TrEMBL record:
Family the UniProt entry places it in: Belongs to the class-I pyridine nucleotide-disulfide oxidoreductase family.
Keywords, comma-separated and alphabetical: Cytoplasm, Disulfide bond, FAD, Flavoprotein, NAD, Nucleotide-binding, Oxidoreductase, Redox-active center
Species for this entry: Parvibium lacunae
Gene this chain is encoded by: lpdA
Domain FAD/NAD(P)-binding: 5-336
PANTHER family per the UniProt record, alphabetical: DIHYDROLIPOYL DEHYDROGENASE, DISULFIDE OXIDOREDUCTASE
Protein name, UniProt field: Dihydrolipoyl dehydrogenase
Amino acid sequence: MSKQFDVLVIGAGPAGYIAAIRAAQLGFSVACAEGNAYADPKGEPRLGGTCLNVGCIPSKALLASSEEFEKIQHHLDDHGISVSSAKVDVAKMVGRKNAIVDKMTGGIQFLFRKNKVTLLKGYGKFVGKTDAGVQVDVAGEVFTAKQVIVATGSKARHLAGIPVDNKLICDNEGALNFDAIPKKLGVIGAGVIGLELGSVWRRLGADVEILEAAPSFLAAADEGVAKEMQKIFTKQGLKISTGVKIGDVATTKKGVVVNYTDAAGAAQKLECDRLIVSVGRVPNTDGLNLEAIGLKANERGQIDVNDHCQTAVAGVWAIGDVVRGPMLAHKGEEEGVMVAELIAGQAGHCNFNTIPWVIYTSPEVAWVGATEQQLKAEGRTYKVGSFPFMANGRALGQGDSQGFVKILADAKTDEVLGAHIINSHASDLIAEVVMAMEFKAASEDIGRICHAHPSLSEVVKEAALACDKRALNM
């Protein structure tokens, strides 16, 4: 007889491990299956999924290290501080990143023990369904659960004809583990991953060229933000070409050669020491044996679900990167909490309109809600309030006055519809507007809240006031 649980989660990434912990907090017997070792020396499953192991956490560690180096090289002189002969130890930098990853993944194991979540070591796949529940095979052993949550995440999308070896041609995993700074780095894809990793190695001294197939830069962002960030990145030294069509890619003794056609239709060639391919991600639904319980992946490889992440099979849920919506760790976490609470009979909730987006470059870019182009397409009347960081004393004192806060509000009701921020602390500042939008606040509400002085958050207040043309400091 197979071992039984109330809830079994397949996958221990941000969506999965949060779902497992929340379900355990609600009194269920919970198991979580994870098989990805991520080059663990002992071959043990590495918890935390792509995010903690080869995504969000390690990339931010390298971004922080490269920012420190760039400050020493280019910005300390403004403060009257002189430093000479600064050098980069790539091995030590990568080692620091790995130590942070080890600490974070080990922390999840502690949380599992604390909350009495049983870790099942191995990949999970469906076997079938009985009166007792859904059967899942993990490393050859069959377990039964009343409720199963699929949270198997995603993997890097690769392009046909471009073999990724994570040595010369890399996806996000290989790009986090370079053993030396490339003199010339090519990047295919000007999305979040391409811009972040391109920025890391550019700061450390690489000549970085990014090729993007889309006709415009950062099409998902507000047009004003995209235009400003393209200027900033270009000034920093990133070479960005949009509207390109990638042709043959070949490795040579010297590195990689990328043949492509530019936006004007002219044949071009990019020769680089290393190439990063960052063209999006695809759901990890292969190997789940969905057919065994009457499910199948859609044409995009996703599992179809309703607004509450329920699949067409009773007792089976799917969350995170394997379902519709943005492939963001925090979105998956919110869905994991929602599903656990729904299973418990509570009113689980996930508002997709208030999920923030962040690009962790320098400066950071963050936004939530609607863009101007979306509001125009909807025919919705709106007003705009914008305020620059160059008029903020704290930003000037920190030597970081690039960017602005832009708030969009309904022209009639004043409800905040969206916000867009360019600043080194944008990922933190956007939270205030997320909170405001979740409670249906008006721009006036933000403008009437007392903000500490001097602080960067004052720019959010000034942008809100600017919606009614009453900014106080400009």
